[in-house]
Amino acid sequence: PLKHADLMPNTYVFNTCINCWAKSKEPDAAAKAEEMLVAMSRLHSSIPSLKPDAFTYTAVIDAWAKSGLRGAASRADQLLDKMEAKYLAGDTDLKPNTFTYNCVINALAKSGEAGAAARAERVLQKMVNRHRNGGGDDVKPTTINFNSVLDAWAKSGNGRNAAERAEEILEWMDRLHKQGNEQVKPDTITFNAVLDSWARSGDSAGPRRAEQILDHMDEL
Length: 220
Prior knowledge:
This protein has 220 residues and is mainly α. The chain contains ten helices and no strands. It is 69% helix and 0% strand. The model has no long low-confidence stretch (mean pLDDT 90).
């Protein structure tokens, strides 16, 4: 028997430490936070009370998202994929929530990595699908999530393709809002991001499309 069983580390203790790293702004904070996640997974077999949960993964994802390091957004995306796979395999403690998804979307949107806009949109699509399939309000997409993806497309450097994709996302928001999701109503930031995508496109159709978008804005 353990001499000091009452002093055994548990999930809460590790989560508190991980959260401290995530908020520390130290240059190696994300790596340290993930090291603790790995240690938790390794020790769980011998210490049942020490098991990563949704907070654990989300805090580590948040640490990577805030680090600004090269490849950090990709790492956050990979951790979300791992978290989702474990949840779908039956680990109900690892259900991602709106904050988890938003951390990854924002990290990708601000990363400047190749293909980041499309990958941010993929995360958003998973979020929408999860909510549609009974995921509950804790994974309900919001205007903020959509605006982050729109901003990513506007800054992607993909010209007309990015601008057209931004318009399609605006139409997607319109459909969801008309279907009853009040939390995805397009706002001023939404329209500005779509207009910005056309302004950055350098396409001759930009001014005409911008006028049409403004007309659509007036109709709402």
